[in-house]
Structures are given as structure tokens and as C-alpha cells.
Design a protein that fits this description.
By secondary structure, the chain is α/β, with parallel strands linked by helices.
């Protein structure tokens, strides 16, 4: 039986709001990994999969990114994360594996991933706060983890000025990550694990104070329808603008079943 028009609209709105508390996940590597994840899955599933895939220590450098306050929609803007987009779309000939998840239910604990890599690979940890604009890195033969902490972008609204500020912040973060990768030795094998947590918009805050489930929506309309350390260290000042790089596309690479970025 077809739902009345207003009931269908209410149901659609409820389904859309079901993903307010989700955020995306990205992984790309110069090594062959067999990471395959559904586009909607739990943080526990993603965490187990990543730890399993990295247990054989395929890389020299592991970059674990923590980006709070975002949703998948933020990355639909091609200017917000152009460097990340190129990696995910295999425009870098060195990238051999890619995985994306559009909607992760629950927060992925980046520290859990860092500890697992430390224990399994004996990797040295370097924590980087992107807000400082620089960091010191050891010239060490040991595997290393670069744990990169980003700040949340400004809250978004319907106003274009707010949206532009949000895109601008994500663009800065994207350039910072690209700079770190650019500073790695050309022969270095690396894996980037890009974790995010969702933002809480004003509208979702209101919904949190007045919870309204899908079941309640259906019930409301039921009357209308049924229903380390090292000897030498280098101080590296990060570059902010790397837009000039052009990369070739490579065949025979492991790509996600349903990429988050449109081609």
C-alpha cells in the first residue's frame, strides 16, 4: 500500500536524520592491502579491519589522522580536500590500495589504532598538532607513526559565508596532510588512516533534546497508512600550498566498491 504524501515525506526526513551521527573514513596505501568495507558500518568493524590489515606491518610510515567535526557531505565539495580526493581516486601512481566508508556509526578511536601499530610493528610515535604549522621528525630507520591532529572546521549553516569558512579550514587541513606526505622519502612506503568524528549541528542538537525515532514517525502516520629517537633530526616547516602537483592515474589498483568521491 502506498504511503500518503505527507507520511512519505516524514519517513524520508527521519531516514536522512538517522545518519546525522555518522562520519566518513578513508584509507590509502602504497602497499597492497585487501581492505574492503561496506559504505555503512560500525566503528568497531572499521577498527578491526584496519588493525588486521596492518598487522603484517606493510609500511615504513603510518599517518593516522584525527579530523573531528565533519560529515561525508563536507568531502563532496571538490575544493575542500583536493589532495585527499586525488589519492582516493588513484591519481597518484604509487597508491596501491584504497578504502572508504561513507557513514561510520560511532567514533573510531585513533589512539587504539596507534597503539596497535606501535605494538605490532615496533613503530616510534610522533604526534603532530596541525595548528602549530611545524614539527620535528627523526631520521630513524625504524617504522614510525605520525599521529596528526586537526581542529574542527567552523560550524556550518545555510549561510554561504559560514560554508566558505568551513571549506577553507578543511582545505588547509588537506594541504597540511599533503605536505607531510610530500616530505617523506620518495622510496618510503606509507599508509594513511584518516579517521573522522561527526559534527553536532544546531538542528541535530535540537533533535538530541527532543528524540524522535523512526518507529515513532511510522506510528504517527499509522492512521493514514500501514507501515624515536635518532642521531640526526631535521626541523621541517610545512608548506601550505601544493595545488600544482599533477599525478598520473595507474591501473591494477585496489579500489573501494563504492568510492565516496565522485569521479
Amino acid at each position: 500500500m502506498l504511503l500518503p504524501r505527507y507520511a512519505a515525506l516524514a519517513l524520508g526526513a527521519s531516514l536522512a536524520n538517522a545518519f546525522i551521527d555518522t562520519s566518513p573514513f578513508f584509507l590509502f596505501s602504497t602497499s597492497e592491502l585487501l581492505t574492503s568495507l561496506p559504505q555503512i558500518t560500525s566503528s568497531e568493524t572499521v577498527t578491526k579491519s584496519v588493525i588486521s590489515q596492518l598487522s603484517n606491518c606493510p609500511s615504513d610510515t603510518y599517518v593516522v589522522v584525527s579530523q573531528p567535526g565533519v560529515h561525508a557531505e563536507d568531502y563532496s565539495d571538490r575544493y575542500a580536500a583536493s589532495h585527499l580526493r586525488k589519492k582516493i581516486q588513484a591519481e597518484d601512481k604509487r597508491i596501491r590500495s584504497v578504502a572508504t566508508v561513507t557513514d561510520v556509526l560511532g567514533d573510531i578511536n585513533a589512539d587504539t589504532l596507534v597503539r596497535a601499530i606501535e605494538e605490532k610493528c615496533g613503530a616510534a610515535l610522533l604526534r603532530v598538532d596541525a595548528s602549530t604549522g611545524s614539527f620535528t621528525i627523526a631520521d630513524d630507520p625504524k617504522p614510525r607513526i605520525i599521529h596528526l591532529d586537526f581542529r574542527s572546521p567552523p560550524s556550518s549553516s545555510s549561510y554561504s559565508t559560514d560554508r566558505k569558512a568551513r571549506v577553507s579550514k578543511l582545505k588547509d587541513n588537506d594541504a597540511f596532510l599533503a605536505s607531510i606526505l610530500d616530505l617523506l622519502p620518495p622510496t618510503s612506503k606509507y599508509t594513511v588512516v584518516y579517521t573522522t568524528t561527526p559534527s553536532l549541528s544546531p538542528s541535530s542538537s535540537s533533535q538530541a533534546s527532543h528524540p524522535h525515532s523512526l518507529a515513532e514517525e511510522q506510528e504517527t502516520y499509522e492512521m493514514d497508512a500501514s507501515f624515536s629517537s635518532s642521531q640526526q633530526q631535521q626541523h621541517m616547516e610545512l608548506k601550505r600550498d601544493l595545488e600544482g602537483h599533477r599525478m598520473e592515474k595507474r591501473e591494477n589498483i585496489t579500489l573501494p566498491d563504492a568510492p565516496l568521491f565522485e569521479r
